[in-house]
Write a structure and sequence with these properties.
Distance between the termini: 9 Å
Strand content: 25-35%
Number of strands: 26
CATH architecture: 6 Propeller
Shape: globular
Structural class: alpha+beta
Radius of gyration: 24 Å
CATH topology: Neuraminidase
CATH class: Mainly Beta
Strand order of the largest sheet: 5-1-26-25-24
Length: 554
């Protein structure tokens, strides 16, 4: 009996290493700092919103703040580089895309879709001379654009038009109606791929579909294009397309005119033989331009009200954008493969290319954490940043080269840049839906707040020092110690060994100073014997001591 106890404990220690492996290969990094965006652009002020949200206190469905006299800022579902007139990337400036507003087609018919041009720059000095800065640096609004369709390019196959032609909340929306502003009943834009200063492609969740837009003005440049289904061999179907219960093609014009079709019954979609049903919150979430000019487009999930739940991962498509002239629509080129989730994750949150690469992208994946603050009911987070090779697939068309290099809930903060005396930071939000790789070393990440349901831990205001900052959009900047996103380095890194470790330590050099190639190669040659991080060391010390004690008792 005593021997069994000892054996069980040792097996537990072995099991710990196996469980944390997955594709985790966390790399040395540090928090540069946090930012906060709380502005309401002038174009959103004095416009009624939230009239579809019932008054009440139920999380995710009701609010005691409705209706809103100004359209609120609801955070961002994607962010991309801002370019100047010459086409050059402007450091620290980004286009940031709002999602559909309040989460569904049922409650967002009075939310105008929009794109913000933001300056997101954080002061950082490695604490030179003990210099410190504010915990949250304000994000600056540079420009703002309502997504609108003056050329009347957005039309559904059954003749359906956009929401403002049928119903607006009140006279404060007359200017939006004249502009033909798109709303959260029309689309749920979760993906933005900026090609140049005046040309981008949006990815939608409600059908799902894609269309072209000028991000500087918000003007729609093309009709939407539906997502084709795929055949067993991975080729694109020519006669079957994805759809959801929020797709207007399933509504009658009479119901739309009466504002009586925010969505349809799931069974109605099942009966339509021209379409294959997917979850209405499972469309395009990861969306980016690759170095070759094509767009990589990740669906969000395989769960929910979908017929794709037997697939081994989320679908990834390759799309060729339109030529940016009015009426030039994007074209689906191919199905690239399935992206496999880590244990506990079930949603793509965003995707960013590695600058200069068409082979590697960086993915942030998540689950539904948090759900309150009472353990274990709140669940456990599954927010990881992973690098995936889009050119390597197994026999089932699943991407098989993947390494997860960062956990959003265990960010190292060695210089205590948030000034709280704690040297780890957790980027806590149910939907961390904006991510961009800015150079060889660093990422910027942002939140979709899900306003007005921002208090996802169900806390009281007096329990939080930064109540306002967590209700508004937040950003964090994280940099890695090594140039992990350099195109040459990432190729060596992804080609070396397996991603079985739970962490990695900084490399040390002997005589002389190795160059970056030597550093990366050395790190990977020693991947199998890499020193464990401090948490793993502490665990193994505890396991060894406990096992020794147990043996003494035998």
């Amino acid at each position: 009996m005593k021997f069994t106890a000892v054996s069980s404990f040792l097996l537990l220690a072995v099991g710990f290493s196996a469980v944390v492996a997955q594709h985790s290969d966390y790399q040395p990094h540090y928090l540069v700092g946090l930012l906060n965006y709380d502005a309401v652009p002038d174009a959103l002020k004095n416009h009624t919103s939230g009239t579809y949200i019932p008054f009440g206190e139920a999380q995710w469905s009701e609010s005691t703040e409705v209706p809103f006299k100004d359209v609120p800022n609801v955070g961002f579902s994607d962010m991309e580089f801002y370019h100047d007139d010459t086409g050059a990337v402007v450091p620290g400036q980004f286009y940031c895309l709002s999602d559909n507003g309040f989460g569904t087609s049922d409650n967002s018919g009075d939310y105008p879709l929009n794109i913000h041009h933001l300056r997101i720059q954080k002061p950082f000095t490695f604490r030179h001379g003990e210099s410190t800065f504010e915990r949250y640096t304000p994000v600056e609004l540079m420009e703002f654009a309502l997504i609108h369709d003056p050329n009347e390019l957005i039309q559904w196959e059954n003749g359906a038009d956009i929401q403002v032609t049928y119903k607006i909340p009140d006279d404060t929306w007359q200017d939006y109606r004249e502009l033909r502003v798109l709303t959260g009943r029309d689309f749920d834009p979760e993906g933005l791929a900026v090609i140049n200063q005046t040309c981008a492609m949006l990815g939608d969740e409600f059908m799902p579909a894609v269309f072209m837009v000028d991000p500087s003005t918000g003007i729609v440049l093309s009709p939407f294009v539906r997502t084709p289904d795929i055949n067993e061999d991975g080729s694109l179907s020519t006669d079957m397309f994805l759809t959801t219960v929020r797709d207007k093609v399933h509504c009658s014009i009479e119901d739309l005119e009466e504002d009586a079709c925010p969505s349809v019954a799931s069974t109605l979609v099942d009966e339509n033989i021209e379409y294959r049903k997917h979850d209405p919150s499972g469309g395009y979430e990861g969306f980016s331009v690759l170095a070759d000019g094509s767009i990589v487009a990740f669906l969000e999930k395989t769960t929910g009200d979908t017929t794709l739940n037997d697939e081994p991962g989320v679908r990834v498509y390759k799309i060729i954008p339109g030529d940016c002239s009015v009426g030039s629509a994007p074209v689906f080129d191919s199905f690239m493969g399935y992206y496999p989730f880590e244990y506990g994750a079930e949603n793509i949150a965003d995707v960013s290319p590695i600058p200069g690469s068409s082979q590697y992208v960086v993915v942030i994946e998540r689950n539904g954490f948090p759900n309150g603050h009472l353990f274990p009911g709140a669940g456990m987070p599954a927010n990881k940043v992973c690098i995936v090779d889009l050119t390597s697939r197994d026999a089932n068309m699943v991407f098989d080269k993947k390494k997860c290099v960062l956990n959003y809930h265990a960010i190292d903060d060695p210089w205590d840049v948030d000034g709280n005396g704690i040297f780890v930071y957790g980027h806590t939000q149910v939907t961390n839906e904006a991510l961009i790789v800015v150079d060889d070393y660093c990422i910027v990440a942002g939140t979709d707040t899900n306003y007005p349901w921002t208090n996802q831990f169900n806390l009281e205001e007096d329990q939080m020092e930064n109540w306002q900052e967590t209700r508004d959009a937040r950003f964090m900047v994280v940099c890695f110690q090594e140039p992990i996103f350099n195109t040459d380095m990432v190729s060596k890194y992804m080609s070396s060994g397996s991603s079985g470790g739970s962490g990695s330590s900084s490399s040390s050099s002997g005589s002389g100073t190795p160059n970056n190639d030597e550093i990366v190669v050395a790190q990977q040659e020693n991947a199998g014997s890499r020193a464990m991080d401090s948490r793993s060391v502490r665990f193994m010390m505890f396991a060894t001591a406990a096992a020794s004690l147990a043996l003494c008792l035998v």
